[in-house]
Amino acid sequence: MTRPVHPLLIALTVLVFIFLVGPLVIVVGSALSDTTYLTFPPQGLSLRWFENIFAIAAFRRTIITSLQIAFISTAIALVIGIPAAYALNRHRIQLPAWLSTLFVLPVLVPELVLGFSLLKSVATGFQVPIFPALIIGHTLLVLPYVVRVISASLANFDFAAEEAAVSLGSPPLKTFFTIVLPNVRSGVIAAFILCFITSINDVSISIFLTGPGISTLPIQILAHVEQFFDPTIASVSVLLMALTVAVMAVVERTLGLTFLAK
Amino acid sequence: MTQKLSISNISAHYGQTKVLEDLSLEVGEGELVSLLGASGCGKTTTLRLVAGFLTPTSGTITLGGKDLTRLPAHKRDIGLVFQNYALFPHMSVADNVGFGLKQRGINGPERKTRVDAMLERVGLSALADRLPGALSGGQKQRVALARALVIEPPLLMFDEPLSNLDAKLRIDMRVEIRQLQRANGTTSVYVTHDQEEAFSISDRVAIMHQGRIMQLDTPETLYQRPANAFVARFVGFENLVPMRVVERDGAKVTAEAEGGVRLTLPLENYGGHIPDAFVLACRDEGLSVTPDLAMEGIPATLGLRTYLGRAYQYQAETPAGHLVANGPLTQPLEPGMAVKLVPVPEQCTILAPE
Amino acid sequence: MKKFAGWTLSTPATLVVVAFLILPVAATFWTTFSTPNGPLAPYFAFFNSNLRRTVLLRTINVSLATTAISLVIGFLTAYVISRTPGWLKSILIIAAVFPLLTGVVVRSFAWLIILGRNGILNTSLISLGITDTPFQMLYTQGSVIVAMVYLFVPLMILTCVGVLESIPDDLIQASSSLGASPTATFLQVILPLATPGLIVGAVLVFTGSFTAYATPQLLGGEQVMMMGTLMYQQAMVVFDWVSASTIAAIMVVFTIAIVLVMTRVARRLNPMAV
């Protein structure tokens, strides 16, 4: 296939990718610096700032809290979101059109507004403690991903296979687990990964819901940056990037990277 | 505005796979040649090479004596009709048809006149302002045709243009395409996998297989005198029986197949000459089933009988292998019967051995 | 039973959205209508305040600039990517996805290191002798825009790659077979067909910038306050929840209006949907 591209466009693309990757390289470099201030290129190589992350109790705590919240809220979103996505695809006729819009709402409503409203009504109004309030916020944050990704997978699934299984004597609930779910497996994995990473990285909802004693990693990073400007944050950032790499490796293994382009 | 297309010794690769090997083809002025074959035979690749969407690894393509091989697609001036029409969905029918003229700097009233005239010819004047999305398959096909014709290209190429239409429309459209092509006298290349379509529309047909042209001839010749076993099977000679001559007797030869089956073949029925070793190729209607075992023919035991409308078709086991034969509707025969299969010369031909 | 299967299965998710999204957000809206000074008083207060009007206008400006720059860069890059063969294309897509999956905080923090007073850019400029006093780059509108573009370009690239790949190859070949040069094909076929998708991408970037918090907080600070940071300040520093609710309501109305209007425009422009 001959597809000529103008050399200027190629030059622009190269610059864009330097722009995209460069800052992250700088973060990695700064994390390895042996200095007490942030600098690049690193002066002296050291892993001391990585050790420093775990030396600071606040980081240890928030890393664990962030992981817990990501797992729990993703799990809840999958448990309530998969049946909803299934219903929206399988029983489209009996459900009103607005229902699918309803599950997109958390995307339409700015996260900041959602976070603030949850603070006002749920955390303050109903005195819900910080941890469950964060779970609620993050579940709403990731629910649209579950519904959208699972719906996309189900759109490619031929429900005749389900009917075939039922006609062969398989009860409906069992059929769902033996026939439908295995066929949207890649969708479930994708949804899980997207939700998990979205939750881990969230600022706008958590910023309102975290409080004394319980915080998430990104909020802790924000707080730390305001007081200290040492390479610790660069090291934490590298940890988060490592998580991203791990996630992409999982995606590559299970779905192929072309999936990410969709 | 009609020119001769010459494709000389082109080869093409997709990555490491060779898809065309040393292919040569000439299409005369005003001639319509079809490239016929199963998917993967190289017919579409040939078309894409001529259109300029692919570059051959070797060989040359010329049109009216001008070398096209390295010319970018948009400078080749070839009218193309695509399988799925490839109409621009954001332009009206008239704008689609006028697109090529616009690229040629033809604007204003002249463009409008030519577009209107072309739409008139394909019977779409009433739909000029519609978007392609609002048209039926047949209408889209007409727009695609008009769009390719209006630039008055020296060469027209069709890439399976009718495969998305239903059977009835397909037949109407192919007549229409042939009439327009004849009227303009435009040199044309027509790619299809449908034998009936290729035979009905073309001056000559190239039957392709694995990147090579197996035979290039008029439909009549291909149908009656295939040059090799592949083409013979392709045009419906289901029974291929290798034989060798054991006795020549003036106007007749006696030949023997595997299992000691002997047949006497009059030379006049097979073009006046039968080589010492040959393959007898017969369509199913070229082997007639008879329960009269005294007749000369291939002894056989009948298998499954199926009803074809004009005759019964029988599966038959013979010493020369499994064959397919026909028998009259007046006399259905039962499986297991011993019969003779008598060659019908008009439905049989002779091929060189493989 | 069968008749209600759809309802039964979608009820838990519906309840969660209604209880924890619709009702709380509605309550936030209600706060702004039920003040002692009359139903629309907080909005008058908002638009009468010079500071707040400035913040709103600045937010619109920054978001428009971010959207425009991301759109141009993202579309052109996506065009090159969509024309790149095989493995190189995968690498480019990975390079675009990676920043997207890396959190907002990390990506904004990177620009803090680059643009800081003793950041890489200033140190480089000084060591090159271009200047001897560091430039104030942080806490300017420019730094916020740069970091926001950095935030949204990957999203724009991926959206545009998707849009461009959905344009059938046949159309591009048809165009060139009819004599259109690559530039003419780009302008007359590719661009018009991509426009609806570009609008959708632009809406994502605009609403994302309009409601951003972490980036303006880190790179804009108090000096370059935007709607998100102002709302946080009102809610968590000043504890004026009526004011914060008002800002929240304005953000919601603004983003939803933009989404509705622009998706309608996109739909009208999309001939494929006919």
UniProtKB/TrEMBL annotation, chain A:
Residues that span the membrane, as ranges: 7-32, 69-88, 95-118, 130-147, 188-211, 231-251
A single Gene Ontology CC term: plasma membrane
InterPro entries: MetI-like, MetI-like_sf
Top-level division of the source organism's lineage: Bacteria
Name of one Pfam family that matches: BPD_transp_1
GO BP: transmembrane transport
Domain ABC transmembrane type-1: 63-251
Membrane topology summary: Multi-pass membrane protein
Main location, first listed in the record: membrane
Record keywords: Cell inner membrane, Cell membrane, Membrane, Transmembrane, Transmembrane helix, Transport
Location(s) in or outside the cell: Cell inner membrane; Cell membrane
Similarity comment: family membership: Belongs to the binding-protein-dependent transport system permease family.
Protein name, UniProt field: Putative spermidine/putrescine transport system permease protein
Provenance organism: Devosia enhydra
UniProtKB/TrEMBL annotation, chain B:
GO biological process: quaternary ammonium group transport
Keyword ATP-binding belongs to the record: yes
Keywords: ATP-binding, Nucleotide-binding, Transport
PROSITE patterns found in the cross-reference section: ABC_TRANSPORTER_1, ABC_TRANSPORTER_2
Domain ABC transporter: 5-235
Domain of life: Bacteria
GO MF term set: ATP binding; ATP hydrolysis activity; transmembrane transporter activity
The UniProt record lists the keyword Nucleotide-binding: yes
Cellular component terms (Gene Ontology): ATP-binding cassette (ABC) transporter complex
InterPro entries listed in its UniProt record: AAA+_ATPase, ABC_SmlMolc_Importer, ABC_transporter-like_ATP-bd, ABC_transporter-like_CS, Mo/tungstate-bd_C_term_dom, P-loop_NTPase, Transp-assoc_OB_typ2
Family to which this protein belongs: Belongs to the ABC transporter superfamily.
Protein name: Putative spermidine/putrescine transport system ATP-binding protein
Species for this entry: Devosia enhydra
Automatic annotation (TrEMBL), chain C:
Transmembrane segments: 12-35, 55-79, 91-114, 144-164, 185-215, 235-262
Protein name, as recorded: Putative spermidine/putrescine transport system permease protein
Chain segments annotated as coiled-coil in the UniProt record: none
PROSITE patterns: ABC_TM1 (PS50928)
Localization: Cell membrane
Organism: Devosia enhydra
Start and end residues of each ABC transmembrane type-1 domain: 56-262
Biological processes, Gene Ontology terms: transmembrane transport
Topological relation to the membrane, as annotated: Multi-pass membrane protein
One GO CC annotation: plasma membrane
Similarity-based family: Belongs to the binding-protein-dependent transport system permease family. CysTW subfamily.
UniProt KW keywords: Cell membrane, Membrane, Transmembrane, Transmembrane helix, Transport
Keyword Electron transport among record annotations: no
